[in-house]
Specification:
Blueprint: E1 6-12, H1 17-26, E2 33-40, H2 47-53, E3 58-60, H3 69-82, E4 87-91, H4 99-103, E5 109-113, H5 125-132, E6 136-143, E7 153-160, H6 167-190, E8 194-197, E9 200-203, H7 209-212
Parallel strand pairs: 1-2, 1-4, 2-3, 4-5
Antiparallel strand pairs: 5-6, 6-7, 8-9
């Protein structure tokens, strides 16, 4: 009998490359989660096509069609619950979620951000990093709270900022790490190997080296 897999709801607004990374991970038999549904607030988001191609239910909830943020989030929560979602993953979802919504999935909402938080939260993180002249940039997966990219950190990956980098080249280098980091962090979260301890997280001693490794498959040790 196959193990029960955690059911993910992925929220998207754009192209969905991090959604694709999660879909690819969930296609592996040994991955402890599956994407149960994808919800976009943008009807033209290419991420919706990625979901449909993978045979995953895709739902459009255009936030502008709702009278209030509360109405939108109520519909969003209902769509996720109808799909049996246990964990919510934000993948380029360009809406802040209220404390009321988050309470419905307490401790089970994840986000990925293209910076080494707590540095450079919010929009245009790569541009912020270049403007400040940092030498190391990267990405962070964190639990979501009611602030902007302020939730407890689950995992991070670093990349060098190279001479001559612009926003596009740095973003591409970070994005490659995002695609590896997000499935790793989801695995840790849904298996209970990373847990919340106040404003911080703790990685359980049961986590294996493989689960914590950011090496690409087939890369030398």
């Amino acid at each position: 009998m196959s193990a029960v897999r955690a059911r993910l709801g992925v929220l998207v607004s754009g192209s969905g490359s991090n959604l694709q990374a999660l879909l690819d991970a969930c296609a592996r038999e040994d991955f402890p989660a599956e994407v149960a549904c994808v919800v976009s607030n943008v009807p033209t988001a290419f991420a919706l096509e990625r979901a449909r191609k993978a045979g995953v239910p895709a739902v459009v909830l255009e936030h502008k069609a709702f009278a209030s943020r509360a109405d939108f989030e109520r519909a969003l929560g209902e769509a996720l619950r109808r799909a049996g979602v246990e964990w919510v993953c934000l993948a380029g979802f360009m809406r802040l979620l209220s404390a009321d919504f988050l309470a419905g999935f307490s401790g089970r909402v994840l986000n990925i951000h293209p910076a080494l938080l707590p540095a450079f939260p919010g929009l245009h993180a790569q541009r912020q990093a270049l403007e400040r002249g940092v030498k190391i940039a990267g990405c962070t997966v964190h639990f979501v709270d009611a602030g902007t990219d302020t939730g407890p950190i689950i995992a991070q990956a670093a990349v060098p900022v190279l001479p001559g980098d612009d926003e596009a080249s740095l973003s591409a280098r970070i994005l490659a790490e995002e695609h590896r980091l997000y499935p790793l962090a989801v695995r840790l979260a849904v298996t209970g190997k990373v847990t919340l301890e106040g404003a911080r997280t703790r990685v359980d001693a049961r986590a294996t080296v493989g689960e914590l490794s950011l090496r690409s498959p087939g890369a030398p040790p």
